[in-house]
């Protein structure tokens, strides 16, 4: 019999998620399902040094500071970012493990499965 190489599926399609994993991931997915929050996450992650001051983020949006703060709080509550107050400003950074967990959910396997 000849081995057949099949490009396998993302982790979400390999086996059913547990109830607790699905609940945790749903919170993160819901947080990034908003275009403003997705942009904020991208801006924080791509900012020089891996962290961004809230003062660097607000100018990119036609939104009030309280609205930006609400979106940042949602990302923080979902466990995707963390923040540290320095003086009057808060500096945000991505939590790599959480963002990697989201990415891995849909990423194909590095090695194809062999049957």
TrEMBL record:
The keyword Transcription applies. Signal peptide: none annotated. It comes from the Bacteria. One of its GO terms (molecular function) is DNA-binding transcription factor activity. Residues 17-114 form the HTH arsR-type domain. Keywords: DNA-binding, Transcription, Transcription regulation. Pfam families: HTH_5 (PF01022). The keyword Metal-binding does not apply. Gene3D superfamilies: Winged helix-like DNA-binding domain superfamily/Winged helix DNA-binding domain. PANTHER family: ARSENICAL RESISTANCE OPERON REPRESSOR, TRANSCRIPTIONAL REGULATOR, ARSR FAMILY. This is Transcriptional regulator. It comes from Planobispora takensis.
